Queue: 2 jobs
Job 1
Amino acid sequence: MSVSTSNTQDTIVALATSPGSQGAIAVIRVSGTDAISLVNSVFKGKDLNKQASHTIHFGTIREGEEIIDEVLVSLFVGPNSYTKENSVEISTHNSKYIIERVINLLIRKGARAARPGEFTLRAFLNGGLDLSQAEAVADLIASNSAASHQIAMQQMRGGFSNQLKKLREDLVHFASLIELELDFSEEDVEFANRDQLKALIQKIYSVINKLIASFEQGNVLKNGVPVVIAGKPNVGKSTLLNALLNEERAIVSDIAGTTRDTIEDEINIKGITFRFIDTAGIRHTEDVIEAKGVERTREKMKQARLIIYLFDPTQDKIEAVQEQIQEVKDLNIPFVTIINKSDLITESQRAEYQVLNPLYISAKEQLGIEELKDELLNQVNLSNINTDDVMVTNIRHVEALQHTQTALEKVLYGIDNPVTSDFLAMDIRQALHHLGEITGTVTTDDLLDNIFSKFCIGK
Ligand code: GDP
């Protein structure tokens, strides 16, 4: 059964904390009409049915006379909960055995194991969150940098949806006026002032334009800036990558229990993530710029938002360097010219290279790395991004915005040309439909399935 069509009358249960984690405490989440009475039936302590919302109670979870664990139970009486239903969070000791027994016990008492994202789905279905806010919950949990965190938080708090809601309301108003005209079509009346409508459509159009434009930057902030380190074999690409990553690794490993598995080729500079593309290739010192590799390299470089081009003064002549730089310039992607191995450079070489205005580093001796980082930030020009601004980071939203825009163009055409009101109304409805897809005013089961099935169980 799909998530969206699952029975919302059931009381659902799932582990809300990370399964298999090492922490001291695990939290089991229960939500649904019967959540409180169901937990109460296995809880020994105060009568949970008689306690106020937003209170915490100590007691034991028992199966018959056997104590499974000593727990703390947090009560949320609907609609004052995340899901808007009665909800209970049981904090147990973090033992796989205890967690399984408690969940199984609750299932035997009548709860059902929650599907992925089902708590958040209920929050959405019960009006606690709109769709873009629900999606932001997933983003928030996945966020791994100050920037991605801030964007997700902003979206979850409704910044994005609020802006769209207001526009949608204005448009609904006009749609109904025009539809009213249809009822009087014999009489040739105009309830909807065409100039005002046009001004509104233009305003919406420009807001949507801005939102679509924010996607590129939003996406970069959310997923990281894709970077390619290019240069001939042996110029020091892998040494540089390691220098950048190692420093990071050292910082991260100071925090006990953190692993770097998922951020292997990423570094974080002042809250912005830089993601190195296909660095495995660099590691194997694969030749990335020799003739046969040129096409592949170009393809790779095109995915980058930033290229770090490394030169080695002990092997690269200035003419060859200039030639390569011209090639990168043709790609129209920001790039940083780096002369590596500055520990080996002679004064005359330095003078010769000066026309390129390069950054001198020594990847091996870790010289100039901080300046390089500053330059990376500088190049992606993110300093002018205000993460307080509403920003679109979700491809689904961008697509809906683009569809809205197409519909709005038709409306504008319809206002300026002799188009009958019913066509105008249809185009406005189309625009409303696509705007509604973002916040979930308009949904289909497929859409909901697609979104919520990507959540983890317990979310
Ligand atoms: P790649 O093929 O571009 O990845 O180059 P490597 O990172 O494998 O480096 C090639 C050689 O250059 C290795 O022997 C490195 O130790 C050396 N190397 C890299 N960076 C520097 C540097 O800044 N100074 C010096 N002296 N040697 C370097």
Note: Confidence is low (pLDDT under 50) at residues 1-5, 248-263, 279-292.
Job 2
Amino acid sequence: MTENLDECYEIIVKLSKEGGQLIHERIWSKKIVEFKSCEVDLVTETDQQVEKLLISNLKAKFPSHRFIGEESTAAGVKCELTDDPTWIIDPVDGTMNFVHGYPNVCVSVALWVNKVAQIGIIYNPILDLFFSARQGQGAFLNGKPIHVSHENELSKSLIGYEFGTSRDTEKMKVVMGNMNILTPVVHGVRSTGSCAQNMAMVALGGTNANFEFGIHAWDIAAGCLIVTEAGGVVIDPAGGPFDVLSRRYLCACSQDIADQLVKIIKQYYPERD
Ligand code: IPD
């Protein structure tokens, strides 16, 4: 690999902190809110500005790199993952939280090279949680190594769960159905409202597993590396290999828990990114 990953890492740490600062300054101020695919899929001027800040600075430094960004895709840019170094960016993961002033809001950025995640950052600037990972080098929270929990039994697990930003009836049937399946058999279910933060919680050992249908590459591109570098597993919710463009993922602290979940949950297959 010809990329200077140390330099890429140094720059993205600095830029995510700058983006995080904008989020921090604005979370309890008035925002301009617009709808995307439906009335619960929101975007604010801060989502757009943070994405612009990240992409313009990365482009200036690495002109040959490619980008997949949530707001650029919403504006019509094609979402395409090639072997070229590609930054996959969710400037504000948890936009609904940001709009309401609920402090589970993260900048999520990953660098993928040859379709493999090399760098992953999930930064919640409100709660000051800076999760980072590099391929083969472990996962960290605010610079300190983190590890997934050692739990192997689903019945003793705390599960991260989301309702998503779609009102599609078929999808909601599956989401509510899985809630009904899980709540009687696990210790508890928790919803942060940020897919990236849900994945970071598995990496940290705060929850034991988490899965979602209908998310996009930018929600999970950093989290998948942080979870695996913390010792966890990331797979397709039906049990096959993880595919970052499939809009489906399941992550867990152990293969055992992942297998137990795969056996009982209902499946949903959204259109790919
Ligand atoms: C959303 C959040 C939410 C998840 C949705 C995502 P966004 O991302 O991660 O937790 O349930 O599926 O779209 O729109 O806030 O970047």
Note: The two ends are 26 Å apart (CA to CA).
